[in-house]
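Replying to the earlier thread about multi-chain prediction with a worked example.

Input:
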Amino acid sequence: MNVLFRRTGAAAVAAASLLTASCGSEEPEAAAPSGGGARGAPALRIAVVPKGTTHDFWKSVHAGAERAAQGYEGVEVTFTGPEREDDRAQQVALVENLISSRYDAIVIAPLDDQALVAPVRLATQAGIPVVVIDSGLDAEVGKDYISFIATDNELGGRLAGDRMVERLGGQGRVLLLRYQEGSASTALREKGFVDAVAAAPGIELVDPGRYAGATRATAQEAAENLLGTYDQLDGVFCPNESSTFGMLLALRARGLAGNVTFIGFDASDGLVEALGAGEIDALVVQNPIKMGELGVKAAVEHIRGTTPEPRIDTGVMLVTRENMDTPAAEELIAPDFSSLGGP
Amino acid sequence: MSPPAPDHVHAKRRRFVARAAAAVRPFVALLVVVFVFFAIQWHRSGYTTDAHTLGAMVTVMDLRMVAIQTVIVGAAAIGMTLVIASGGLDLSVGSAVALCSVVAAVAVREGWPVWAAGAGAVLAGGACGLYNGLLITTLRLPPFIVTLGTLGLFRGVAKWMAGSVPVSAHPGWLGELVRPIPAPRWLVVAPGVWLMLGLALLMAGVIRRTVFGRHAIAIGSNESAARYAGINLAERKTLVYLAAGLFVGLAGVLQFGRLTQGDPTVAVGLELDVIAAVVIGGASLTGGKGSVLGSLVGAFMMAYMKNRCVRLGWPTFVQEMIVGHIIIAAVAVDMWRQRRAQAR
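Result:
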């Protein structure tokens, strides 16, 4: 209902282009949180701010957040994020606007561990609790924000590295295409991977300082350039969905898909299909649904007086062609979006 | 019964009224936007008459956030108004802002005092503007082409200087300058907002009262006429871009303060926001006309809509769709008035 309203409201405004105030809901939203106004069951408005809105990963976070909200009475989730995953300025502005709109809590996946510190502190000072999910923030848990809920990213990277060593028999040239500097979560995955393959002296990392950039398109370009420069590769690792997908496209274009041991991170329809087709050897998969769910839960618990754990691990799993049909893997690679409603 | 005024007094009065109307127009547009959003909120609240609920719909905190989100586009728009009024255009603004924020961050990281780093970044912006101006005047190329080229150039230099990664550095009092809630609360909005307003008034004065400003407008109105009138086009145009560049540099410094880092990938597409602000503010893209304060109102209006969309729970793209129409509406109204004035 709420989503539906938002959509009709949006369309009406676009069409009428500010001509009339009559657009929007058919029924008034009975005195929205008016601060000190009506008693009873005031709705808790929780904003969930992803890094971007174009990746499937964040759709899963959204689904988890909605699922958590449905488990409570009177909790309402607003999911809003910057369009591009490198638009730090937009995410900062967004948090500021959420503060002035007096949301009751903010659950955020910070785009940058430095740039988002000031706005998160501002929210906390304004009495709005902040839960950090997915990526770290260079601030103090318990003081600047209440809890950090994320994958153990370094472990995820190590799983990928161990798998790579095993598949290549400890010998070979491996390409690592990093995601983007300043993104704490992927940096840890890259570190875990590098550490794990360093254990096998026969494995050589090729040009390991390259970055994919924010989108599938930038990743595809970077991957094409790398594959054009280095041949005779035995293995490839990418640390997130967009870099993995961009690399997959580039490998396909060169006819290399399936001929190198390609390990990626995160899942989306396209990647899972490639995994089934043998173009991808393995995917390290996180649990973004759980991330969104626990993020909202931590915020609600905090508001209702209990202190959530300062660090909550949401787990990782190495999904391969062999185990991708197991229920445990299926829950992660074919997530259930029913809580989102709509198409 | 007073004697009828002579004709030239009528003409003068009419000109004054026309100018006042033009100056007020962006503010009217802003009021309309504010009113419409308020009406939507009021509608949603079930037409409440509770004073507390009404007061909570737009707060001082909202004002603070919108104001701070106006400064970067606003600072760049001050310079852009001058450029557009002189018949030029600058597409390299976003890239130059990123470059200047990197310059400031690198300088601070290298141990420069904050004021020196800030000054260095402003000068770097001036250098970008000077480069644009020199290319436009010496190669006699359209500004659109030159700045389209430097859009890529400045972005590249920014990435090169930063080593392709955001440069984190402690911005010191530059951070205070753009802190949404100012340290002395009586300032209401961040000191950077006041700085921007002061500079805008200064620029408005320069455009209206100085020979340089008059020449810039003259060039924008009719370039050939300005040349026959003996204005040194190359020198004046170069100066216009240099001055605008200094404001872009300031925008870069403010961007550094906001993010506490010099990010070479920041402000992609910012130039379009800046141009939109200037056009909403009443400038003509064909030159000869521009209002600095109007441009700030335009920038404020766009930030305000962003803020309202969050308040109403609408996704960001709604705001983009609305702004698109507002730009078109602003220019349409302007053209309509011009045609009507000519027909008279």
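The radius of gyration of chain A is 21 Å.

Feel free to reuse this layout for your own posts.
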